[in-house]
Design goal:
binds ligand F7E; binds NADP nicotinamide-adenine-dinucleotide phosphate; globular; alpha/beta; two-stranded parallel sheet
């Protein structure tokens, strides 16, 4: 039985990756942060199915705590490490720059040092990001494109990406960078723009919400389905050699395009419901991103199974179920509306 160690197991990608690995009979170990309320919602179904037999194990840790990571790696001796943990919200990284950077930087140094010092061959996956390119040009971006980070989040990701490559080249370790373009799902955090839209439109459609306030509607992203992308992570780690890989759909769409498809689902005109506010405008913006996944397609046999339109639809349908449950709670006085978040996002 192979052992995998995942930082960020409670996040969107961590939850999908755990499903894949558990299904392939891996023993999965994931790190969770202590918080004042339980934050394992995305993996609760996996916990009830796999933790009793010891196939899924959770450990308290934090990327900013090298000792905890090193102790865990020495104890578990995993075959594969997936470093998915991060303060992953770009706008929040401008507001909490040191914390956001330290999390990514300190985490990758600690993990790579432990891998180097352990007397075992351990494969390492780093969650790199299309944000590293900065999006200044309209180019089709691939593994050879130049990085031009525009946020503290992206700058820290460039550091982590480079360090992963450095440990591969310097010590011959199996260190992989997955440069993933935006990928979304019903498990996406609710303050990312796609999920913010699908949560809002479904509430609007049943009278639970009146308006949706967003920032830059002209931004365009290469948006895919997270489950498809996480399958790519597994393929990279099982390729004959470690490398850098771009995962993208090869299509780009604006926030307006996303809004149109989501509101069209309910035959609503998005312009009647959407407001804009400076509150959601970032100090520096990545205007446009479009990736070229040819290398991953040719060498890994990786493919996109879900189109942009299908992605929007599956997110809308999942959030409609949630909104209908909320409506019952709301009508019974058990829920207060919380869709306008106090913090910037
Ligand atoms: P996510 O849903 O925000 O999950 C992030 C995970 O990191 C969560 O489990 C979170 O724990 C954990 N985390 C945050 N701070 C931490 C810390 N100090 N120590 C340990 N763990 C910490 O992000 P995602 O969408 O799954 O993305 C996974 C990774 O891929 C991230 O590194 C992200 O930057 C990167 N990425 C994402 C995309 C995308 O489009 N989704 C694209 C490219 C790269 P809590 O649950 O306790 O908050
Ligand atoms: O923004 C615009 C916003 O926050 C997308 C992370 O997973 O993908 C993600 O980063 C675009 C931006 O994702 C709102 O200005 C407009 O241009 O959903 P987002 P992101 O910044 O692209 C990359 C690849 C990662 O690596 C990151 O971890 O949408 N936008 N109005 C808005 N964005 C938000 N969040 N909220 C708005 O109201």
């Amino acid at each position: 039985m192979k052992k995998a160690f995942i930082t960020g197991i409670t996040g969107q990608d961590g939850s999908y990756l755990s499903e894949i690995l558990l299904d392939k009979e891996y023993e999965v170990h994931g790190t969770v942060r202590r918080s004042s309320s339980i934050n394992t919602d995305r993996i609760d179904n996996l916990i009830s199915k796999y933790s009793k037999e010891g196939q899924l194990n959770l450990h308290y840790s934090d990327l900013s705590d090298p000792t905890s990571l090193d102790n865990l790696l020495k104890k578990i001796e995993p075959d594969e490490i997936y470093n998915l943990g991060a303060q992953s919200h770009v706008h929040v990284s401008f507001l909490n720059p040191l914390y956001s950077s330290q999390t990514s930087v300190s985490g990758v140094v600690s993990l790579l040092e432990s891998v180097k010092n352990l007397d075992k061959e351990i494969k390492f996956y780093q969650a790199s990001s299309s944000e590293m390119y900065g999006g200044a040009s309209g180019d089709l971006l691939d593994e050879n494109s130049i990085f031009d980070p525009k946020s503290p989040y992206a700058a820290a990701k460039v550091y982590a990406h480079n360090l992963t490559k450095i440990y591969r080249e310097s010590y011959g370790l199996f260190c992989v960078n997955g440069i993933l373009f935006n990928h979304e799902s019903p498990r996406r955090g609710e303050t990312f723009v796609t999920r913010k839209i699908t949560r809002a439109v479904t509430r609007i459609s049943i009278g639970l919400q009146e308006k949706l306030t967003l920032g830059n509607l002209d931004a365009s992203r290469d948006w895919g389905f997270a489950k498809d992308f996480v399958e790519g992570m597994y393929l990279m780690m099982n390729y004959k050699e470690a490398d850098d890989w771009v995962l993208a759909t090869g299509e780009t769409h604006t926030v307006r395009d996303f809004l149109k498809i989501a509101f069209d689902y309910f035959s609503l005109n998005w312009e009647d419901y959407v407001l804009t506010s400076d509150r959601y405008i970032r100090p520096n913006e990545v205007n446009h991103l479009l990736g070229n996944p040819s290398k991953a397609k040719d060498k890994l046999g990786w493919e996109i199974k879900t189109s942009f339109e299908e992605l929007v639809k599956l997110m809308v349908e999942s959030d409609l179920e949630l909104a209908e449950k909320e409506k019952v709670l709301y009508e019974n006085g058990m829920l207060k509306p919380t869709w306008e978040y106090p913090s910037s996002s």
